[in-house]
Predict the structure.
Amino acid sequence: MFRIRFHGRGGHGIKTAGHILGSALFDSGYEVQDAPIYGAERRGAPIFAYVRAAKTPIHERGVIRTPDLVVVADSTLIPVAAAGVLVGISDKTVVLIASRDKPEEWSQRLNLTGPVFTLPVHEAEDQAERPLVGAACAGAAARLIGVISRPALEKALTLELAAFGPAVIEENKSRALSAFDAMAAHEGCVKEGAVEPQEAPRWVDLGLEEPPVSAPAIFDGATSVEVRTGLWRMMRPVIDYDHCNRCAWICSTFCPDSAINVDGEGWPQVDYDHCKGCMICVAVCPHHAIAAVPEQGQTKAS
């Protein structure tokens, strides 16, 4: 399985870079996961995206902790601990940094023993240029993985950028394909990591009970029973038993707090100690036998 992490800042097109690579891998016959992870949703804030790809169904979930490839679109994130750029890397992890500095310099600075490559992308001062960095990183990553053809990358770029119009597509294609070509000497250097064993879920087998036993009134001792949430109420539901048809399974089931019980004769009874006054029972009663009454002036017995 390939495990790739993209790191950058808001505005670099990191989410789109993950989508582009994921689409290209999918078009190349792989099962794929790709998703972004946000911190603060603002331009310039750290963001990362991850991509998993395998020829078999993918059962792993969550962030990638042992990446095969780490792509850094903004080198200023590397010393930021909260960005987690170097978390989980090993001597087998390939690191690609968008930087004009030489790979050897980065290997020395970070004391990395695994392969390090740099991509001298345009250091855009114009904010409109920044998303192009993500496309270039996706193109370089596609070549390093070694299983994505140039046509598959072009197709993914067209698909993922279709909403932005022909001009944006062509500019991103130009940057991505240039980066794809720039990494030709290192094609296929990213190797698939082993599939990590997944722990089987610890299922709890709950036996079935008859409806009279599995009633909707479920109270956890020392918590919901003791907290008198009825004090929150502004309106209270009052049942008109002259109109009630004793179809109590409706109001009692829809009550989100299990505050409507059913007595031995099938009549619904409101637990005013715990009814919060949401009035859902008023809305669902098919016979309109429950009215919403202002709480002010009411007593518990009323």
Observations:
- Helices lie at 14-27, 103-110, 132-145, 150-160, 166-182, 248-254, 280-284.
- The first helix runs from residue 14 to 27.
- The chain has seven helices and ten strands.
